[in-house]
Design a protein that fits this description.
20 helices, single chain, globular, alpha/beta, 30 strands, binds adenosine-5'-monophosphate-propyl ester, seven-stranded mixed beta sheet
Length: 652
């Protein structure tokens, strides 16, 4: 990474220190956690494990590190559902609200810790009644309804590992995941609400089971939407029938620290999804620690809301396990942010008095597109901390979030982590860290990151590959059924280091700036240019709402930058404006970053989880026929983009 980089052009000098009032009341307001972890990180994590969790049996050793295989809190035993439920009820918190659940059509449910414990115990008995126990895997394919966390926690109560499959996935994905995990059961619902109508789930399970997944013996079905679904005699069972007869007495089973807690499949670069393995003690320790300190959680007064889907790791760690382990009161929302209106999220924030909101940059940019008048309709003054996750946040979106949602008074925590890391790795602590818009700042206490160059040499300043240098409690323990692939994927590129697949830069003040996956880093005439920074410069133009950038093969320069841009509502898509936007990038980042073409488009191709499918944009840019588009949320978007691309002027 020695060649001139675009990072050299890009300087962000705005800083935001925690306000004195915020810092004075914050759980962490100085560097003591960092100092403690730096002095002895094993002792630091051991203290967190013992203080944040209740153990049935204490551990005798903190860490066994046989690179790349880690075991944390060895000899310890604990139960995750006990830590998330029973101990709060035993401490007199049974009537405390665990979840304010908000259904999309507007139906609501208030669930206390005592309610949740009863439901979880009953469903754990249902699972036992179906012959399931420690060592089994269960697939869960559900909408965002209360039965989803109940199902997950019931699994943990008796040592069954769950594998949650995002509700937007197809039957093929269900087959692949169930076969790989040899799941014995699928828990689903007839449908879930999405944009005002039932979105069917059970028929996808039926299709999947007609194609494969022979290990599945039963399907348990929640009746969410009262739709007509086929129930296969002997195989399919209604949730409400099973629960009607279930006992609420189900003692939690102490599990080994390293017992498999769950699998979560991520799509890698190859066709076969990887079953990321998370285990019990280390995972729960780090999610509880980060949920507490990164969001400055005050469980007695806060109403916390992670607006992600439980089908992704963000929902696992920061809707279910972290908040419940910490005895938080949270919001769960079933639907989309635009139903019934584009102020849906802000209405929920106002009604429940939400104090922490955790969402993704892509959502923030959508809110920008919809306009500041939507949040302005609501009183958002309850908010204290704002979080973002999932992709680099461009400074423009950061500032918009800060101004229009945070009222300029809420620290923003930009949290970098992955399915594989299990919990936050790089993030500000809101009472400690002075933030810069677009930077995830520093590793959290107890996590050690370093940038390296192509040869694995540490980079003190400038661009490099982000690596993690020491094991951490919630790290993946492997890829299900494929230890060699685990070693190869994460530990082979740089010796002795976990390579996350992300590029980053470190600035003069030692702040980390995530630049996206390294496969999204372009090489233009030998210069490294991050798609993220060009996107950031594009959306910095007043007329631009959202942008995606790809590097397309180019005979002369190796790669050329192609920008796809959605304009804000009041602007017309003229060639002049496209040219102005191109120039804006040159002004902002330097001439080498000026896109060859800016295509003004009405929409961008996104997966159902909201990630922009750059691969398709690259295919369009390079005039190739499109590869697999099955994960695309809206198929028609690409045709329109292709037409617009053919009509767009190009730089000579
Ligand atoms: O590229 C990074 C990006 O998301 C990837 C991980 O994706 P996934 O496993 O789906 O988990 C997403 C939720 C944790 C990372 O390799 N990413 C995640 N958070 C950030 C980010 N990139 C920049 N800044 C972030 N805060």
């Amino acid at each position: 990474m020695a060649d001139a980089t675009i990072e050299d052009y890009y300087v962000e000098d705005r800083t935001f220190a925690p306000s004195p009032d915020f810092a004075a009341a914050a759980l962490a307001s100085n560097r003591s956690l960092y100092d403690e972890a730096e002095a002895d990180y094993e002792a630091f994590w051991a203290r967190q494990a013992r203080e944040l969790l209740s153990w049935d049996r204490d551990f005798h050793s903190v860490l066994e590190w046989d690179l790349p295989f880690a075991r944390w809190f060895i000899g310890g035993a604990l139960n995750v559902s006990y830590n998330c439920l029973d101990r709060h009820v035993e401490a007199g918190q049974g009537n405390k609200i665990a979840f304010h659940w908000e259904g999309e059509p507007g139906d609501t449910l208030t669930i206390t810790y005592a309610d949740l414990l009863t439901e979880v115990s009953k469903f754990a008995n249902v699972l036992k009644g179906l012959g399931l126990g420690a060592g089994d895997r269960v697939a869960i394919y559900m909408p965002m309804i209360p039965e989803l966390p109940v199902a997950m926690l019931a699994c943990t109560r008796i040592g069954v590992a769950h594998s949650v499959i995002f509700g937007g996935f197809s039957p093929d994905a269900i087959v692949d995941r169930c076969e790989d995990a040899e799941a014995r059961l699928i828990i689903t619902a007839d449908a879930g609400y999405r944009r005002g109508a039932p979105s069917m789930l059970k028929p996808n399970v039926d299709t999947a089971l007609s194609q494969g997944a022979a290990s599945v013996e039963h399907v348990v079905v929640v009746n969410r939407c009262d739709t007509d679904v086929d129930m296969a005699e002997g195989r399919d069972l209604w949730w409400h029938d099973l629960m009607a007869d279930a006992s609420a007495d189900c003692p939690p089973e102490p599990m080994d620290s390293e017992a498999l807690l769950y699998l979560l499949y991520t799509s890698g670069t190859t066709a076969k999804p990887k079953g990321i393995m998370h285990t019990t003690g280390g995972y729960l320790t780090q999610v509880a620690f980060t949920h507490k300190y990164v969001f400055d959680l005050k469980p007695d007064t806060d109403v916390y809301w992670c607006a992600a889907d439980i089908g992704w790791v963000t929902g696992h760690s920061y809707i279910v396990y972290g908040p419940l382990a910490n005895g938080a009161t949270s919001v769960i929302y079933e639907g989309t942010p635009d139903t019934p209106g584009r102020d849906r999220l802000w209405d929920i924030v106002e009604r429940y008095g939400v104090t922490q909101l955790y969402t993704a940059p892509t959502a923030i940019r959508t809110f920008m597109k919809w306009g500041a008048q939507e949040p302005a309709k609501h009183d958002l003054s309850s908010l204290r901390v704002l979080g973002t996750v999932g992709e680099p946040i461009n400074p423009e979106a950061w500032m918009w979030y800060h101004t229009n949602i945070g009222g300029e008074g809420c620290p923003i925590v930009d949290t970098w982590w992955q399915t594989e890391t299990g919990s936050h790795m790089i993030s500000p602590l809101p009472g400690v860290t002075t933030t810069k818009p677009g930077s995830a700042t520093h590793p959290i206490p107890g996590v050690f990151a370093e940038l390296v160059d192509d040869d694995g040499r540490p980079v003190e300043r400038g661009g490099g590959y982000l690596t993690i240098t020491r094991p951490w409690p919630s790290m993946l323990r492997g890829i299900w059924g494929d230890p060699e692939r685990y070693r190869e994927t994460y530990w082979s590129r740089f010796e002795g280091r976990y390579f996350a697949g992300d590029g980053a830069k470190v600035d003069d003040d030692g702040y980390l700036w995530l630049l996206g996956r390294v496969d999204d880093v372009m090489n233009i005439s030998g210069h490294r240019i991050s798609t993220t920074e060009v996107e950031s410069a594009l959306v910095d133009h007043a007329a631009v709402a959202e942008a995606a950038v790809v590097g397309a093969a180019d005979d002369t320069t190796g790669q050329a930058i192609i920008g796809y841009v959605i304009l804000r509502g009041s602007h017309d898509a003229t060639d002049e404006l496209g040219e102005e936007v191109r120039q804006h990038v040159a002004t902002k980042l330097g001439p080498i970053a000026r896109p060859k073409t800016v295509v003004l488009v009405p929409d961008l191709p996104k997966t159902r989880s909201g990630k922009i499918m750059r691969r398709l944009l690259r295919d369009v840019a390079e005039g190739r026929s499109l590869g697999d588009t099955t994960t695309l949320a809206d198929q028609s978007v690409v045709d329109e983009i292709r037409t617009r691309a053919a009509e767009s002027p190009q730089e000579d």
